[in-house]
């Protein structure tokens, strides 16, 4: 069972590319967008952190990008953004990205049990890559409605 925690979250500065997506295309859209962001940051010598994907609204708009330290020069397709601030429900998934459904279910179940509603934006922060899937960490956040 995935543990759900409540956290006060601060904004993470991001360099992102955006797209309207759908569940069937998410993984390919995320890879495509990250392939737009990383070359820009490498070319500019920007200090980076983790990959982050932000999910907003309906239709599903995604921002796939990278945490940044310092400034970068925006381009036609790569712009600045931040993760939300406020109170969030969060859980950690260890394993293959394609197997995150139980972590999402734990968040949905927690919302029903607690009576707390989500604010309509969520995000995933991907830990360091490992060839061993059991060592792949993804932190999942849902901003909570006030």
Rounded to the nearest angstrom, the distance between the terminal CA atoms is 27 Å
Walk across the major sheet and give the strand order.
1-6-8-7-3-4-2-5
Low-confidence stretches: none
Kindly report the average pLDDT value: 95
Structural class determined from secondary elements: alpha+beta
Strand content: 35-45%
Task: Please give the number of β-strands.
Answer: 8
H-E string: EEHEEEEHEE
Can you summarize the main beta sheet? 8 strands, antiparallel
Number of helices: 2
Give the radius of gyration.
15 Å
The residue fraction in helices comes out at 10-25%
Overall outline: globular
Structure description:
β3 and β4 form a beta hairpin. The radius of gyration is 15 Å and the shape is globular. The protein is an alpha+beta fold and 146 residues long. Helix content is 23%, strand content 42%.
What is this structure's SSE topology?
Elements: E1 5-9, E2 13-20, H1 26-44, E3 47-56, E4 61-69, E5 79-82, E6 86-94, H2 101-114, E7 118-126, E8 137-144
Antiparallel strand pairs: 1-6, 2-4, 2-5, 3-4, 3-7, 6-8, 7-8
Summary of the model, kept short:
This protein is α+β, with helices and mostly antiparallel strands. It contains two helices and eight strands. It has helices at residues 26-44, 101-114, and strands spanning 5-9, 13-20, 47-56, 61-69, 79-82, 86-94, 118-126, 137-144.
